[in-house]
Specification:
Layout: H1 3-11, E1 15-18, E2 27-30, E3 33-36, E4 41-44, H2 48-51, E5 57-60
Antiparallel strand pairs: 1-5, 2-3, 3-4
Length: about 70
């Protein structure tokens, strides 16, 4: 996913994840800050472009980090 695609996904409420992270890890947008799955600030949104080259970014799906289905 490109930076613009990631930013658009975050803007509509999607969570994104990175291929280098464990399956239950993601970030989401709150105001202008990316927040991780535990609610801790990760990085400002305007810094995302600088780390886009680190691994493959994709939309996080709620049950991808779970071994059980609902």
């Amino acid at each position: 996913m490109t930076f613009n695609e990631a930013r658009a996904a975050l803007a509509i409420g999607c969570k994104i994840t990175n291929s280098r992270w464990s399956p239950d890890k993601y970030v989401y947008l709150k105001e202008s800050m990316l927040i991780n799955e535990s609610g801790t600030p990760f990085i400002p949104l305007n810094s995302l472009e600088h780390i886009m080259f680190l691994g493959h970014w994709e939309i996080y799906h709620e049950n991808q980090g779970s071994n059980t289905s609902s």
